[in-house]
Design a protein that fits this description.
Elements (H helix, E strand, L loop, with lengths): L2 H5 L1 E2 L2 E2 H14 L2 H8 L3 H15 L4 E2 L6 E2 L1 H28 L3 E6 L4 H13 L4 E6 L1 H9 L5 E5 L7 E9 L25 E3 L6 H13 L7 E3 L3 H11 L2 E4 L1 H7 L2 E4 L5 E9 L2 H10 L1 H8 L10
Parallel strand pairs: 5-6, 5-7, 9-10, 9-11
Antiparallel strand pairs: 1-2, 3-4, 7-13, 8-11, 8-12, 8-13
């Protein structure tokens, strides 16, 4: 009988709605009480029962009495009608639960808790529950391949990205606003020490690391001046200890309390695209929460780099 839920109507009336009224009236022996229990006007309840009777070709209630007394046919049909209503209610409940099943989303470890919380709140407003997994670039891709998450924000070249995050350099003492020219870091012949640019794990990807290293090589920096840190914490600690530079976004520099400057020359930027097990999940993140994802990634809100 469940297939009737999808394929049949009773003279234009939903079969489940008609059976719901039939069950409520039949159990209470009253159209008034049954309509109230089904939360419909009594006139609507009467029409739905009449349509159901016409559909079956038999009377469900004996109209010769003042009470809504079931006919023998009505008593036979009541258990099946009740099962149909229960199945329909169970189906609706499971549909609501399925919509609340968390969408696992792998995100960069550089995302701030505050902006992830804002993304989560925006998603819940659209009946989507996100389950964040913070991880590095390679791990995010692996989490998606193994289907431990349903979607991931993957690191890609800016040309292929849904979101881009301009990068510059930050330090605890250098609060200038002019772009930093890497050649200004070139050590003199007699210099024994030099300032490094630390690359954090999130940016240890070819389209960022190689670009910075190649630029450093062109301006004759010492190879050790461009270094990849084992962790963000290690990179920030080295920056603070030796007054080095951290390659990062303006938003991340603000969060860490560091001064930030753009890099002179060709821009360097993180690129992110959303990839998912299904196209629907990818589009839900890409189109449904574009602004909130951008904030979480550190994309400038006005679409421009900070001066």
């Amino acid at each position: 009988m469940l297939h009737m839920l999808f394929w049949h109507t009773v003279l234009g009336v939903d079969l489940v709605a008609a059976c719901r009224v039939f069950v409520q009236v039949g159990e209470r022996g009253s159209f008034t009480l049954g309509a109230e229990a089904a939360r419909v006007p009594q006139s609507v309840a009467s029409r739905r029962v009449a349509a159901l009777e016409e559909h079956f070709g038999e009377r469900l209630f004996d109209r010769s009495t003042r009470r809504a007394a079931l006919t023998p046919f009505g008593r036979d049909m009541l258990p099946s009608a009740k099962r149909l209503v229960q199945l329909a209610e169970a189906l609706e409940y499971h549909a609501e639960q399925a919509k609340l099943r968390p969408l696992g989303l792998a995100v960069p470890e550089t995302c701030s808790v505050r902006h992830l919380a804002m993304l989560d709140a925006a998603a819940r407003d659209k009946d989507t529950v996100l389950d964040f997994r913070s991880a590095g670039p390679a791990e995010r891709a692996q989490l998606l391949r193994s289907r431990e998450v349903r979607a991931a924000l993957l690191a890609v070249p800016p040309a292929d990205a849904d979101w881009t995050v301009p990068l510059g350099v930050a330090s605890p003492t250098d609060h200038g606003t002019a772009p930093l020219h890497l050649e200004s870091l070139r050590p003199g012949r007699a210099q024994r020490s030099f300032r490094r640019i630390w690359i954090q794990p999130e940016d240890d990807v070819p389209h960022i690391r190689d670009r910075v290293e190649q630029t450093g090589h062109r301006v004759a920096l010492v190879p050790a001046q461009i270094a990849v840190a084992a962790s963000l914490t290690a990179a920030v600690a080295a920056t603070m200890r030796a007054d080095d530079f951290l390659l990062c976004s303006a938003a991340q520099a603000d969060e860490l309390g560091l001064g930030w400057r753009r890099l002179a020359g060709a821009p360097v930027a993180r690129g992110y695209s959303v990839s998912a097990v299904t196209g629907d999940d990818a589009e839900r993140v890409r189109a449904g929460f574009r602004e909130q994802v951008a904030r979480a990634l550190g994309t400038p809100t006005d679409g421009k780099e900070r001066a």
